[in-house]
Amino acid sequence: MAARPDAPGLFDSVSASGEPNAVQPVSAAPSADGAEYEADSIQTLEGLEAVRKRPGMYIGGTGSDGLMHLLWELIDNGVDEAAAGHARRIDVTFHRDRSVEVRDDGRGIPVGCPPGRDVSAVEVVFCELHAGGKFAAGANGSAYGASGGLHGVGASVVNALSEQMRVEVGRDGHIWRLDFSERLAGRRDGDGFTPTHELQRLKTTRRTFTGVRFWPDWELFDTEATFDYAAACERVRLMCHLVPGLRVTVSDRRRGADTEPFDFRSDKGLGGLVAELAGAAGGGAVTRIIDVSGGGVFEEKVPVDGSLTTVERECSVTAALQWTDGYRSDVRCFVNTIPTPAGGTHLAGFERALTRAVNDVLLDGSKKLARSGERAGREEAQEGLVAALQVVLPEPQFRGQTKQELGTPAVQSIVYEAVKSALTEWFTSSGPRSNVTALRAKISDATEAKAASRRLQADRRKASALGSAGLPDKLADCRVHGPGSELVIVEGESAAGPAKAGRNAHNTAILPLRGKLVNAAKAPLRQVLENAEAQALFRSVGAGVGADFDPAAARYGRLVILCDADVDGSHIRCLLLTLIHAYMRPLLADGRVFAAQPPLYTTRVGKETYRAFSDAERDAIGARLARRRRNGAESIRWQRFKGLGEMNTDELAHCALDPATRTLRRITMADAEAARRLLEVLMGADVAQRRAYIGRHSGLIDPASLDI
After folding, report:
1. Residue 242 is inside which H or E element, if any?
2. According to the model, what pLDDT value does residue 151 have?
3. Which of 81, 103, 372, 636 is the most buried (most CB within 10 A)?
4. Helix (H) or strand (E) holding 131
5. Which residue in the list 291, 530, 548, 568 is annotated as catalytic?
6. CA of 605: how far to CAs of 11, 608, 616, 646, in Å?
7. What is the largest distance, in Å, between two alpha-carbon atoms of the chain?
8. Among the listed residues 185, 207, 230, the one whose alpha carbon sits nearest the alpha carbon of residue 103
9. How many CB atoms lie within 10 A of CB 196?
């Protein structure tokens, strides 16, 4: 909407009366450091100076990785020639003068002048950014159907970050040479350098090749930066697997180097790479190598003659996979001939297809996983997997000049369809049944283990929380805690009443347990933590559970187990001791666990109370008392306690709560290993082992003494 001619401008000042004031010119304000920000502050970096100003943007940094990236740029150019079918050999040489040379037997860089230029194509390639034969849109399109060098900055970046460079080209029947010194083209004769745009024509030859030797500008790189011979060998090994038939030799002629030249060639493609990686990892194979091939077409908008035009692209997908009996995965992915360690859209499609095929096809109908409802995740599906994935497409979109991650969106769905289709066929029909069965068992076990680990972690968090959770409602706590206090664990609510009434509330707490506890020797941690009685004990003690148990944090100095003097009471006491041994073992090791000894019989003669803990002891006490009485044993009336609930407050306090009159038995672990083994036998899940133990020791038990 147009402004009214008489209206004040947006930046005009207005007086209090509403009339516009005169606009005052605004002077440039100095910045905080005194510098002014004016039009002449805007700088444009021309040519290769931008690379020298910000080398990290082009090679990732100025350390050893950045230095090696210069070498990768030249090797990749040779590999592109080989992938296009024009080269079969690449030689890489580390020289004594700290220079590096890369030579390939490809077509050679053109030595003529590009249209509209008066300098050779060799000089253009090495002196100008975004100049090359891999995105030129001539009548026949690019000189390469698909390549690794896509941005046209690789060779020029090497020149930009080099002190000097020599390029030799075999082409058009001659060997041509062009030298560079501090990024200027020319001719070097001995120690002298003459700037010139003319290529030096040397001898005649029928061969075609490109050789580039460069001396890095070491002032731009970190002092510890160096060329890594082993990394170069590993890189070219990968390239040979990507381009079957390509032979690469790496020679180290530097001072102190005593390695033999590394010479490698592979005709087996990605399958050879996977076999090599799996062999290096060690272990056995679960499946044979699975080959995947496929592809698709997608549309992409690209600028043509100044306007965006939709073009059709082809993308081919090749992969090789093998599962081993190890646990680590090793998945290598490539775009054309470029390794992409950061992954990208092709790796995302591969992993999604793999996980979907494993769950929907391989594990479909697995009874073990059907019961638990678990599905394999990415880690489980790839456990022990060794794989190589390559996609080939024209002009891929990389996220950054270092080309470590693919960004072309359409590639993800193409890779997904190709990999999922191939794996589905292998799982259902083409794969050997023994391989498929073994792989199903491996991934099922991994999925179950992951679920168990997840549950265990949740259980540990829950167990840790028990140490700080509130006290259970049924706990009758004492007023003072610490070494002089005790927690009396009583069997049943009926015994809780007299125990609470007869205790010394100053330092004695009462915790009643209802029913029998979970058997901690057989039950998993989750089941133990979900048991209400076990929870009550853990929360009452307040010192954590299992590996997190801290005896110094226990609220009580000792635990006293008070159960009936019958078989059920003994069983409950065993379950309690098993629980304490499994999850609060330091209390046993420190001798802080006791078992109260309530009598089975009691009698009162005159002012004296007598207790017997067995039938034999009752008879012995009765015989001794009978000799002192006229009517003998007939005048003695024994009371048999079926349970603690039958005792009144005074009786329970006298025999189990009063330190002056009660009898306690300390539960110790003089031989912890023997105790552990015995608990496993008597309380563990192995019924046959327990039956055999009872059979071996049954002669030690008097059947008449059993309370059954």
Report:
1. helix 229-242
2. 43
3. 81
4. none
5. 568
6. 113, 5, 19, 20
7. 141
8. 207
9. 14
Residue 491 catalytic?
yes
Q: Between residues 486 and 641, which one has the greater pLDDT?
A: 486
Residues paired with 263 in a beta bridge: 249
Per-residue pLDDT tens over the stretch 60-86: 899 999 999 999 999 999 999 999 899
- When mean pLDDT is compared across 100-109, 140-149, 422-431, 661-670, the lowest value belongs to 140-149
* Strand duo 184-189 + 556-562: pairing: unpaired
Sort strands 174-181 and 247-252 into parallel, antiparallel or unpaired: unpaired
Torsion of CA 622, 624, 628, 630, to 10 degrees: 40
CA distances from 221 to 52, 226, 297, 369, 611 (A): 11, 9, 43, 55, 92
The pLDDT score that the predictor gives to residue 679 is: 64
Catalytic, out of 395, 566, 590, 646:
566
Query: Phi, psi (5° rounding) for residue 353?
Result: -65, -40
Contacts of 46 (CB under 8 A, 6+ apart): none
Dihedral sign (CA 497, 498, 501, 503): negative
Residue 128 is among the residues annotated as catalytic for this protein = no
Residue 489: other Cβ atoms inside 10 A = 27
Taking a C-beta distance cutoff of 8 angstroms, is the pair 662, 654 a contact? yes
Give the Cα separation of 396 and 391 in Å (integer).
10
Instruction: For 124, list phi and psi in degrees, rounded to 5.
Output: -60, -45
Mean pLDDT, residues 7-22 taken together: 41
Active site residue 65: no
Residue 86 CB partners (closer than 8 Å, separation 6+): 106, 107
The pTM assigned to this predicted structure is 0.62
- Radius of gyration, CA atoms only, the chain: 42
Q: Please say if 459 is a catalytic residue.
A: no
Please give the C-alpha separations between residue 65 and each of 62, 120, 225, 228, 232, in angstroms, as whole numbers. 7, 31, 8, 9, 11
DSSP annotation string for 282-325 = -S-BSS-PEEEEEEEEEEEEEEETTEEEEEEEEEEEEEEEEEBS
User: Which member of 91, 252, 564, 651 is catalytic?
Assistant: 564
Residue 200, token pair as written in the block: 């030096």
Q: Percent of the chain at pLDDT above 90?
A: 46
User: What pLDDT is recorded for position 21?
Assistant: 46
- Model confidence at 11, pLDDT cuts 50, 70, 90, reads very low
DSSP character at residue 212: E
Rounded Cα distance between 369 and 365, Å, is 8
Among residues 76, 123, 351, 491, the one annotated as catalytic is 491
- Name the one residue in this structure whose structure tokens are 């290769």: 48
